[in-house]
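During the reporting period the student researcher (J.K.) took over the structure-prediction task from the postdoctoral fellow and processed the backlog of single-chain submissions. One of the processed entries is reproduced below for the supervisory committee.
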Amino acid sequence: MPAQITANSSPKDIEANADEYAELLRKSGLPVNRTKIVEDMRKRAAGMQTPPQSVTDWEAAWAAKQAANTPAPDPAKPEPKKKEPPKKERGVVREIDPNYFYVTPENAAHANTWVELNNLGVRMHMLLIGPAGCGKTSLFREIARKFGKPVYQVDAAAVTSIDRWLGHKDVRITERGPETTYVLSEFLRWISADGFEPGYVVIDEITRTPPQVGNILMSILDGSESVWVPELGVRINVHPETRFGATANIGVGFTGTYSLDQALQDRFGMTLEVTWPVPAEEQKILVKRTGIDDDKAKVLVNVASQVRQKADEGTVAKPVSTRSLLNAAHLIAKTNRSIIDAAEATFVKQYSPEGRGNSERTIVQLILQGVAGAR
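J.K. obtained the following structure tokens:
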């Protein structure tokens, strides 16, 4: 406890401090020699014998007593060991990007041109053709995401009746009795931007629309860009900023579809063909969207490539789609199933077992076992 004395301390200050420090010594149970305290303080003030920052005998005794009465601090607890992040398995991508998508440079260039033309006021609609599950609808979503437009998807296979396309009558009971109103379909509200932001209206699998619906679409997609609703007696106009897209699975392997009317097909000013991504890109899609190990993704893509070749040769009825590979990859990444188990649960049983040893399913299973082995 250094004395509160400086070279400028007056005799009065010294006496006051001597009383204070004497009391502290007394409370500590130490012998008190007030005369010695005053003498030490005077010498300190005068700069004699003891330098201003030194400690006198009585100060040292007091400090030692205080230290003895102070409980020792708890031993320092060892810092908890930092948990090391789990080691990354080779090829595993921890960050999942469910929107990751691959577009060929050629299709990307055409899509950009399509958007630019529409922005310049050229009313042009786009048709995407290709096998099921290769990413046709995803391409429209990718375009919309890039240019900040909403996408409104119409599932043509599910919207089969005219009223589902145009609207329906609704009877409500009021105080005046039953009242009949007409409720516009979401499709008409999308195209006219009635309560919705104008954007891209995508008709998914347009080849599944019956002819009577095709006639409605032709009037919407042609120069008039409107549709007559007889029940309302009004004509609904397409919003100037609305653009139409459509996807089609064209080929003899697609049952339950209608041939795309030539007049309807001509309404689409741009037609792009979308097919399977190249193996390296398809592998990357699986890894980025599911978190599957890169090596396992490579095996799945290899299986799909061989089955697709068999489909091209006519040995099996259809190829393995990218959509099916994603389903299998999710099972592998999330449930730790083997590649064979995941493939069996997602796409293998979609192939016909007829023909026993020569069946399509057997062919696919043999490819799977040959490529995947025990993995």
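The committee noted the following: The mean pLDDT is 81.
J.K. will present the remaining backlog at the next meeting.
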